[in-house]
Design a protein that fits this description.
Blueprint (H helix, E strand, L loop, with lengths): L1 H5 L15 H6 L3 E4 L3 H16 L11 H16 L4 H6 L5 E4 L2 H11 L2
Length: about 110
């Protein structure tokens, strides 16, 4: 199913650290690496957990304290480089764009839509 998707003319995928997405990175015209501050990411994890817990946001898993802990462990792995994202992205430097904040994102969207 993944191969069918990336063989289409236009597609967008999200890579949350899955090494199986290597083929997607190879075929992508542009790789956008979102890097908001750690404070924003922590806030988003907690906000998402609360919304899921009270039923304001759907999810494919049970929003438990165990899952919350898993999300913070994934954040730690990202921050320390244990998820190997930098190594995987390094191969595609020429087509990777890193956006760190709203201003970066807005500028990128304006430039792409010109």
């Amino acid at each position: 199913m993944f191969s069918q998707l990336i063989n289409k003319q236009q597609w967008i995928i999200e890579d949350a650290g899955r090494k199986s997405f290597r083929e997607g990175m190879e075929k992508a015209e542009v790789i956008i690496n979102l890097q908001p501050s750690i404070l924003i990411r922590k806030k988003r994890i907690i906000t998402r957990y609360i919304k899921q817990k009270i039923g304001l946001e759907d999810c494919l898993y049970r929003p438990s304290l165990r899952m919350l802990k898993f999300m913070f462990r994934a954040l730690y792995d990202y921050e320390t480089g244990r998820n190997d994202l930098d190594l995987r992205l390094n191969q595609y430097r020429d087509k990777t764009i890193t956006l760190r904040n709203s201003r970066d994102t807005e500028e990128y969207i304006l430039n792409v839509t010109k």
